[in-house]
Amino acid sequence: MKKNRYEAVLEIIKENDIENQSELAKKLRERGFSVTQATVSRDIQKLNLIKIKVDGRFKYVVADTAGNYSEKYLRIIKETISKLSVAKNLLVVKTQSGMAMATAAALDGLELLEIIGSLAGDDVIFIATDSDDKARLLMNKIELLMKKEI
User: Fold this and answer.
1) Domain range for residue 37?
2) Are 19 and 75 members of one domain?
3) Are residues 75 and 103 in the same domain?
4) Are residues 47 and 114 in the same domain?
5) Does 55 share its domain with 101?
6) Average pLDDT estimate for 122-138
7) 66 — pLDDT class (breaks 50, 70, 90)
8) What would the pLDDT profile of 3-39 be if each residue is shown by its tens digit?
9) Are 115 and 89 a contacting pair, CB within 8 Å?
10) Minimal CA–CA distance to 70: which of 78, 61, 80?
11) Using H for helix, E for strand and C for coil, what is the string for 17-79?
12) CATH number reported for the structural domain that contains residue 111 in this entry
């Protein structure tokens, strides 16, 4: 039963911009699932969903940052990135002076699906994604990685 509900949650957030747990619960009920707010909350946590801001509104997406990433990559990301900004479909990553190439290599090593390619200078990295939403999602993933315990 949980597996079916999990699959439904993933379908719902893929097909709809779901802003809160109440909306998600309503959509699940429309599909025949008997859920409470507590159930939806646990499902969100179990499925590793996060909220990202898109056009001034929030929506749930899957944050696939729960993987066991190399400690070396995480350390570089945590210690070198000072600022993340989205500019349309680009993620602009500001790093400590001289660290952009190492940071870009660490981000590439994580094989995040949103990254099409990156260009590193001395202290700035431009990361291309295929949409504004993917750039925001990537920024959220990197922010989560920066908070991850090593």
Assistant:
1) 2-62
2) no
3) yes
4) no
5) no
6) 95
7) very low
8) 799 999 999 998 999 999 999 999 999 999 999 989 9
9) no
10) 78
11) CCCCHHHHHHHHHHCCCCCCHHHHHHHHHHCCEEEEEECCEEEEEECCCCCCCCHHHHHHHHH
12) 3.30.1360.40
